Structure prediction request, 128 residues.
Amino acid sequence: QVQLVESGGGLVLTGASLRLSCAASGRTFSSYAMGWFRQAPGKERAFVAAISSSGRITYYADSVKGRFTISRDNPKNTLYLQMNSLKPEDTALYYCAADENPPHAGYYSDYELPYDSWGQGTQVTVSS
Prediction:
């Protein structure tokens, strides 16, 4: 399994921005479909955004569409989540995940099942 390490979380005020990063080990990051999920206190983990291995296709949860942007830098083995206009309801532990065997370069998933590896999470807290 690939090792994933998230960073960039923190405590911010409503309306602020943060950029999360997810550093991946291994030499085949460019072949992985990647995703971001989050878990708020007392709630189940939920999908946030996904990106295909090529980076050309992205998909977002309705709750973050237009505010968050997922991207990747394959030569740097890094996944990003740019979060703008943050709201208190965005407060959660954010996880990145890797699907190490996507069926094709345009594949992505908003379900947890296809993802083989998960990071430990980075906390985002948005205060009003």
In short: Residues 48 and 63 are 8 Å apart (CA to CA).
